[in-house]
Amino acid sequence: MDSRAKDYGLDLHCTMILEAYREFLPSFRRVLEIVLSELQRIIDESGLFISGIEGRVKTEESLAGKLELKGSKYRTLCDITDIVGARVITFYGEDVDKISSLVDKAFDVDWKESVDKRRLHALDSFGYDSLHYICSLPERLCEGESLPALKDIRFEIQMRTVLQHAWATISHDTGYKSGFEIPREHLRNLNRLAGVLELADEQFSLIRSSINDYRRKVDSLVKGGKFEEVLLDGDTFRSYLELNPFEFLMKRIAMINQAEIQKSSSMPYLKVLQDLGFTTLADVENMRIRYTDAAYHLAVSQLGGTDIDIITSSVALQDLLTVYIISNGGGEKGLEKMYTTVGGPSAYNAVRAKQVFAAAAELPFMKKDF
User: Fold this and answer.
1) Domains of the chain
2) What string of DSSP letters covers 171-224?
3) DSSP secondary structure string, 114-125?
4) 316: closest CA among 336, 288, 279, 282?
5) What is the pLDDT of residue 126?
6) Is the pTM value of this prediction over 0.90?
7) Are 171 and 160 in contact (CB under 8 A)?
8) Is pLDDT of 125 > 60?
9) Which residues, 6+ apart, have CB-to-CB distance to 292 below 8 Å?
C-alpha cells in the first residue's frame, strides 16, 4: 500500500480507489488530450465562434476530498465520472445546444448519467448552471492507443455560456454552493446577481437573433432591388456590391484600352458615399444610373492615348463619384477629400484633384444639366 494514502485519513475502500487513480493517471491524461483535440476539431469544422475550451484531470488532493465527503457512494474508480473533465464555453445560450449536438455525434454519451442543470431550478429561484454530458471515447478514437482501458474511462463535458461560467466561478469563490451558511443579506444579493446574469444571457441571444433577422431581411430586399427600403451601412453596401452593380461600366472602361481588370474592394468608398449624404442604397443606385455615361466619358479622357492595360475594378465607382462630386459643386476640395478618405493623407491628393478637375471641366458631360 502506498504510504501517501494514509495522509488523507481515508478508509480502506476509499484508499483502494485512490490507488487505482494513481495507476490509471497516465490513461486519464491521455483521454483528456484526445477529448480536447476532438472538441477543437468538431468546433472548428462547425464554424461556431466560442469563447474557449478548457480541460483538466482531477488532482489527487481533489479526489481525496471528494472521497472523504461521499466515498461510500462509489463502488469503484469507474463510478467517478468527473476525474477527466472538459468544458466548452460559448457566447450565446443557443450555441450550448449546438455544441451538445456535436458532442453527441463525436463521443458516446451516457444519457442516464448526463444532466441539463439549466432545467433543474425551482421557478422561484435564480439557479444558474450548465449542460453536463457524461461520455466515453468511441472505438475510432481509441485505435492505435497503447494505454489500457481508454474506452472504459468516462469523462464529463460541461457546456455553458460565458455568463454562466462567470456565475459558476463567482458562486464557487463566494462559497454559495459550499454548504456553509451565508447571511441572508449576502444570499439575496447573490441571487439578484444570478438573475441579472441570466437576463443578460437571454438578451444577448435575443439581440443576436434580431440582428440576424435584420440581415436576412436586408439581403432579401437588396436581392429584390428594393433599394429605397435599405439604409446604407457596411452590411447593406457589401450586399449591394455582391450584385456587381458597376460591372457593366467597368467592362466599358476596360474596353477603352482592352485592359485587364484587377479585382479590388469598393468598400473603402462607403465612407465617401456617407460623407456625401447618401443614406440609402437607392441613393447609390440612382447615382449609378444617372452618371454612368458621364463616368465612362471621364474614363475615356483619362485612359485614351495611354498604354495602361491593367485597371482595378473599383475604378468604375471612383469615376462615378468623381463625376457626382464635380457635378454637384464639390470641386477640387471634394475630390481631394475622396482621395484622402480612400487612400489616406498624401501631398499628391491635392495635385491629383486639381488635374482631374481641370480635365473633367472640359468634357461634354459638364455642360449637361444633371
Assistant:
1) 3-165 (3.30.460.10), 229-367 (no CATH)
2) HHHHTTTSS----HHHHHHHHHHHHHHHHHHHHHHHHHHHHHHHHHHHHHHHHT
3) EEEGGG-S-TTS
4) 288
5) 44
6) no
7) no
8) no
9) 248, 249, 320
Rounded to an integer, what distance in angstroms lies between the CA atom of residue 331 and that of residue 354? 9
What DSSP state is assigned to residue 132?
A: E
Largest CA-CA distance found in the chain, in angstroms, rounded:
102
Check residue 329 and give left, alpha or beta (phi > 0: left; psi -120 to 50: alpha).
left
Q: Which residues contact 232 (CB under 8 A, 6 or more apart)?
A: 270, 273, 274, 278, 279, 280, 281, 283, 284
Q: Give the three cell numbers for residue 118.
A: 439549466
pLDDT above 70: residue 124: no
The yes-or-no verdict on residue 119 having pLDDT over 70 is no
**Angle (nearest 5°) at CA 269 between 217 and 213:** 15
273-295 per-residue burial string, b: 16 or more CB within 10 A, e: under 16:
beebebeebbbbbebbeebbebb
70 contact partners, CB below 8 Å, separation of at least 6: none
Which among 348, 314, 355 has a CA at the least distance from the CA of 332?
355
Model confidence over 27-86: pLDDT tens digits?
999 999 999 999 999 999 999 999 999 999 999 999 999 999 888 899 999 999 999 999
Instruction: Give the start-end residues of each E strand in the chain.
Output: 50-57, 84-90, 108-116, 131-136, 155-161, 260-262, 310-312
Strand locations in 212-312 (E):
260-262, 310-312
